[in-house]
Design brief:
2 strands; globular; 2 domains; two-stranded parallel sheet; mainly alpha
Length: about 250
Amino acid sequence: MYLYPKLPNYVAQSTAEEIAGLDVVKLINSSNTEHPKAIYTTSGGNRADNLHMKDIQEKIRKCGQKWNYPTIADSKSLKGFDLDSSKILLENLKMMPFEACQGDTWAFFGCILLPDLVRWRFFDKDKPTTLERFTGSKWGLRNTFGRLWWRAYILTDSRKSDPFFLLNNLGEDELVQITERPSIAGNTKLAKSFCNSFLQILSENPSLDRSILFRDSIKRLRRDIPIIAFESMNEEELETFLENLFTESIENIK
């Protein structure tokens, strides 16, 4: 495992303020694989070297080019970029969750390594990109790259023929609702099982309103999390619980 460079919050904030409204091409020229104020965790692995960081940088930019980077992209292209780059980040970053939990790790990616992709992904011609897309925020969940790594980490299932099935089939709002709620995301087995059950129910009941079902069912799940020990459930028990939860939800929304 590697220890990745971290950009202290005060540096990240000032940097993000300076670059949030710049042109994508200018940001390409100002990007770098290192920074004089970058810091590293003192133990737990070897430091990621410039060669590794350059490789990540090139792979993400190449992914962006597939989806119209650096020109303005439509929503379909941006969704495609999110999906493909999620996979690239998970497969190529030799990162432990402890490293990923630290917002300053993702601040380096957003402010130094790939600020051009941040600006492109969240471009608004009338105003600067929101600073949290460059900086770390809590767990990096609002950072352009942190949010993608976490999605892949939480929802990838190596047991399936398509490990990225959930990423491929969940919508943006659904992904946000799962990965930005620590009570759900913190239990990856529960998160994956809930999403698999949700998609299965939709396939069996195509007339259901997808967004209403998701909102109602996740509200029920969050209600139960404080009082049910999901960690102690085996797969069969969890499957039965979720089957009952979705049955109640469907009855409620009909």
